[in-house]
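Whether sequence alone determines local backbone shape is best considered at the level of individual chains. When preparing material for the folding task, we compiled for one chain both its residues and its backbone structure tokens. The sequence in question and its structure tokens are set out directly beneath this paragraph.
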Amino acid sequence: MEGYLDYLDLRPNPPRRRRDLSLLPEMPLDVLLEIFSLLEPKDLLNMARSCKDFRRALVKPSMMHVLWRAKRIESGAPEPPEGFSEAKWVAFLFNTFCYSCATPNVRTDFYVLKRLCVSCKKKGYVQVADFPENYEVAMVGCIPWTNAPTSSKEETDYWYAWIEEIEEIATIWDTFEERILAGDAQAIADRNTFKQERGAAVEHMREAAPECRVWADTLEEQKLNNKNNVREARILAVRQCFYELGYDQVDVDGVIEWETPELKTGKGKITDRVWRNLRAKLEPQVVRAAEVRHYELKLDLKLQRMFDLMTAWNMWLESLNLPTSELLKYPKQRDLWYLPAVSALLDAPVDAAIDYLPIVADFSNIARNFIFTKREELRRSVPIANLSEASPDALELATSIFSAPSSTSHLGGGDLSYPKIALGWKMLSVCHLFKNEEEAHEMGFSVEQPVLPFFDEKLSAVAATLVTDVGLNRYTATIGDMDALDERFLCLTCIRTKLRYSGKIFVGAYTWKNAVVHSREHHRETIKFERITSERLRQRVDRSEEIDEERSDPDRYQSAFHCNHCFFGPRNGRPALKGEVKEHIRTEHNIEDPSARKGDYILNEVRRQNFEKPSYIHMREEEFDLD
């Protein structure tokens, strides 16, 4: 006995019998009828297509009134037209595929009792004006016509018929003609009877079409409402599941909503299996929404605190009575934001008592340390290889070229855009660059973080060749030394390229700063400049520059100027047009004739490069020495 029990334990389980419906057709008719009566018309049609036995059972004459007619009445559908059984009419009403090619989701046309897709309509529809000439006009009344030839629901002014319908009537008509030609005395009477009966049937179709269309539209609307109700129930059920997990309603509702892709299909009831799948997909989104909301609340609080601090900061700046040329060096809002003492204040808990006085009292030290630290960090970024014992301030060297990082954004509030190159403390001190903070960017917000220009080794090497070309020492030549020489340079790299196509070309004559900018924009890898030594050529360049200056007046359209008597000026601290600044000085400071020489207004150094454009001259190939 024990051995037998062991055998039972070790015996493999028999294979499970696969469930099927093969015995369903053998059930008693009354039982089948009870089952079928519970099905929707669409499901009943699918059941009829499942196998021959079901088809035979469902299309029996006895089923027409017992089942199909009951389904039609239950759905509120109109009576079937001539030539349609109850089963065929239900199939026509509830199927959605094209009558000709089986394309799904096609709109039914009750004027011709067809469902045709756009492609089949284009191929098989014949306009009444194009009715074949070899067909008798009397046939027209025996053919159903429609004025909805396209996929649009709007009716048109043209009437169309299905080509197969025309050919079918033509075939019948030809039969009558053959009988008439054969001398059949009854043929004409039969043709007239056919024409009368067929015309009446077509007329009945035309009269019944609007009613059928209203029913079909009502059914579609009902289906859509039912679908939307199921979708709404699904959304509410999923939301409730997340509520029970402890998530806040605002986060859940923001993710679980009408357009959530995972909830557009499915049943309203959420089973455990469905919930596990949905949770795996949607919970990370809900968590993310909570993180973004909390970050936004934290950011709003920091912005409000920063606003209060900046109010005190701006009042302090006004009290200094310093020229704007000095105040432009002071930290901006985002510079202050990331200072340790300010960051600690901004990150304090929501219910913490905020005391701004220690920071306000230390404004002068904050400004002084900011300028000092910025200058020292920029100095340390200049490589030792670019310096010597005789070198002056590293930031004043003509070979110390700085560029903005690729991640740099425009200043907050649209104050200034970063320069193409930055050189000299005079420009660097007022050049405030920012990049997007990574955490804020990941959360979908734009928060700017201060960043310093970086020492650009490639552009510094270009500047070193220009310094050497004019006969100065690359380790000691300053920006002022190069500006004083006022030399002009030609880009041999551009010239060689242009001479491939023409012997007379238009070339640029660059100042040494413009040459560095040109290298940055056009020849980042390889470039060669040549100093203009020909007196005759330099005279042409000078003349071209004079003409350019007469033709253009960049002061009119460049927002690059500041009032030097007050920091905020006409645009609340942002650079403005020269005309705006002058008008501000006249009205606010009672100075009748403002002048830059007198120090009434200044040009922001970051925008100076916009005023220093190269001049262009025509030159011939023989004027170049490209060796």
